[in-house]
Amino acid sequence: FFSSRRRHTRFKCDWSSDVCSSDLSGDFAQVYVIAHDSGHPVQNLMGISGKMEAARQRMSVTEYNKLSVKLELQADCLAEFWAHHANRTRQILQQGDVEEAIHAATAIGEDRLQQQSCGYVTPESFTHGSCARRGARVQDGAGGRQNRRVQHLLGAGPLNDFTVLRASIRL
After folding, report:
1. Which H or E element spans position 79?
2. Burial status of residue 9 (CB atoms within 10 A of its CB: 0-12, 13-18, 19 or more)
3. What angle do CA 11, 132, 54 make, to 5 degrees?
4. Backbone torsions φ then ψ of 10, nearest 5 degrees
5. How many whole angstroms separate alpha carbon 68 and alpha carbon 129?
6. Which residues pair with residue 9 across a beta bridge?
7. Count of other CB atoms within 10 angstroms of residue 14
8. Is there a contact between 153 and 70 (Cβ–Cβ < 8 Å)?
9. Residue 22's CB: how many other CB atoms inside 10 A?
10. Closest Cα to residue 157, out of 43, 9, 56?
11. CA–CA distance, 67 with 43 (Å, rounded to integer)
12. pLDDT in tens, 34-68
């Protein structure tokens, strides 16, 4: 998990067994989780994480949660954007890999997790996004799309510079 203060990504030793024993089956589901969490340092390098922290002081919890969802959706997109470009240069993807990543992203949507844990869903409390939105952003990234949805996840600014994005997520 990424820590912007310490500027590193850390994985629990048993995270892989957690992923394998859940609905996140498939080898590429694990790659997606790593790539998603590796997207957060990219966001940090691009200055997006710092802007998020600065904005936190000026927003209500609900407003900040909405912005946090956008940050997480961007990390989902970056994960598959990386996979798309890595596959173009190194042919790393196998049949079904993109579907495994989409399944993993939708399996960890907050609407599903909240429904399972407490029996109801409160969208205003989301900090990572719904099943549908997470799956859609993974699909956008997998297609290598430079569409308006991807470009506007966090509005104008460094996200719109896909040259920087491509350079930041090379293997």
Report:
1. helix 61-90
2. middle
3. 60
4. -130, 140
5. 9
6. 2
7. 9
8. yes
9. 12
10. 43
11. 13
12. 888 888 888 888 888 888 888 888 889 998 998 89
